[in-house]
Amino acid sequence: MYQDYSQYLQWLQRCIQAQEQRILTLENALQKMKEDIKLVNEKKAIHIDKIEYKFDQLKVETLEGTLNIGLNPSELSGIEDFAVQNQSLSSPLSPKNQMQRSMKIEEAIYRYLETDLPLVVQAVQRELNVQPNDEYLSFVKQDIIKQLPSRIEHHLAANSASSRSSENTPSDELIIEALKKEIQNGVMVFFSNLPENLKGMN
To answer: Which parts of the chain fold into alpha helices (H)?
Structure first.
């Protein structure tokens, strides 16, 4: 009988030692994870200064990208700082009137995209010897539509600023004409920068 108790106590002691060993292993693993998390939190974010691409070495198989209307990235190099002092800005138009102007301009540009943009694209394609392709027109139109709200907002803000500095404020028609000119310039830049293998003509 004592032998049974002795064996039982030995078995119990081995179980306790195994549990203690397992707890120690888990505590060590937990401590290591805490240290790893602390190291990850202390690391600074990676900062990349400049990436240069050599486009003449790329083979383009799909047409993707952005058609820039308005400011082009190449024009941004001369712009140093857009900082604005904390000043209270007063808008001569109420938000309702501003929204109505924006909608009127947007409708006019949508009509222009439906009626005149195909002609503009065809003319530029002929001028630059680019094979006509309906996918280009669709791509250009979708890209312009994505950028249109921000460009209208930009022109209305510039209009608002000029109205504070002078009596003569540009009409909606002038803003519409400025947007049309930006679109035409953007189409020309887009097709000018197409790789030769996508132009489809020699």
So the answer is: 2-42, 95-115, 117-127, 134-165, 172-192, 196-199
Residues 22, 71 within the same domain: no
User: Kindly report the CA angle at 50 between 74 and 54, in degrees rounded to 5?
Assistant: 70
Instruction: Give domain status of residue 184, yes or no.
Output: yes
The Cα–Cα gap between 41 and 19 comes to 33
116, 152: one domain: yes
Rg (CA), the chain: 33
What is the span of the domain harbouring residue 39? 1-47
Work out the percent of the chain whose per-residue pLDDT is above 90: 16
Domain count, the chain: 2
Q: Does 99 have pLDDT greater than 90?
A: no
Q: Closest Cα to residue 126, out of 191, 178, 71, 51? A: 191
Q: Looking at this protein, which amino acid is placed at residue 29?
A: A
Look up the pTM and report it: 0.50
